């Protein structure tokens, strides 16, 4: 009788473990926990991160839109191979990896400089601000490429504000590699 109870308990434990691995996907949970730990050292980082990712998505969407408009529609752009998963992924991957690396570095900086949080917050604000300005500029450029010439004023405004932001924070622009998706 005790042997049957033991077998039932072991069988139940095995089924529970199997279901937790099958349905919960612990590898995904582990990876998402690490990414969350690195990207969000405190709750103040959630809103800027979401805003930056929304800007990235809008940049990608407006890029597809611009290519479609320049080639007689989305279908024609695909047929003529102006839009292909390989070419778009190449530029998008570079942008996502670079933004993610900067975000992780900012999160790590915040985590490991707890004795000087003001410096970490200032540097992170500069990084997020610059990345957001760059994505906004790219969105405006994509819309202008799509034929929305009425957005030229917005592009000029974004470039001016980006320049002011960079001057205020003693940043030199150097080589702007964001045009890799162009």
Largest sheet: none
Number of strands: 0
Q: Over all CA atoms, what is the radius of gyration? A: 23 Å
Order of helices and strands: HHHHHHH
Cα separation of the termini: 72 Å
- Label the overall shape: flat
The overall average pLDDT, rounded, is 83
SSE class: mainly alpha
Structural domain tally: 2
Uncertain regions spanning at least 5 consecutive residues: 175-182
* Proportion of beta-strand residues: under 5%
The count of helical stretches stands at 7
Amount of helix? over 70%
Organism: Paenibacillus peoriae
Pfam family, one: Phage_holin_4_1
Subcellular location: Membrane
Membrane topology: Multi-pass membrane protein
Features:
single chain; 7 helices; 182 residues; mainly alpha; disordered C terminus; flat
Please provide a written account of the structure.
- The protein is about 80% helix and about 0% strand.
- With about 180 residues, the chain is mostly helical.
- The protein has 2 domains: about 40 residues, no CATH class; about 140 residues.
- Helix 2 crosses helix 5 and helix 5 packs antiparallel against helix 6.
- It is flat.
- The termini are far apart.
Short description:
The chain crosses the membrane at residues 23-40, 46-66, 96-112. This protein has helices at 2-24, 26-39, 46-70, 74-79, 85-112, 117-145, 152-168.
Secondary structure elements and pairings:
Layout: H1 2-24, H2 26-39, H3 46-70, H4 74-79, H5 85-112, H6 117-145, H7 152-168
């Amino acid at each position: 009788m005790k042997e049957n109870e033991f077998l039932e308990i072991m069988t139940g434990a095995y089924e529970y473990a199997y279901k937790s691995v099958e349905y919960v996907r612990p590898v995904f949970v582990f990876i998402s926990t690490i990414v969350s730990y690195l990207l969000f050292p405190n709750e103040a980082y959630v809103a800027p991160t979401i805003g930056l990712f929304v800007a990235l998505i809008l940049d990608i969407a407006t890029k597809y839109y611009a290519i479609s408009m320049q080639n007689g529609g989305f279908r024609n752009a695909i047929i003529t191979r102006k839009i292909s998963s390989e070419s778009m992924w190449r530029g998008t991957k570079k942008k996502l990896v670079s933004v993610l690396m900067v975000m992780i570095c900012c999160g790590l900086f915040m985590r490991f400089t707890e004795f000087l949080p003001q410096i970490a917050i200032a540097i992170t604000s500069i990084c997020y601000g610059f990345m957001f300005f760059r994505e906004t500029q790219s969105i405006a450029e994509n819309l202008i490429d799509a034929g929305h010439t009425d957005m030229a004023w917005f592009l000029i405004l974004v470039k001016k504000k980006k320049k002011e932001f960079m001057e205020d924070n003693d940043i030199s622009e150097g080589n702007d590699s964001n045009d890799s998706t162009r």
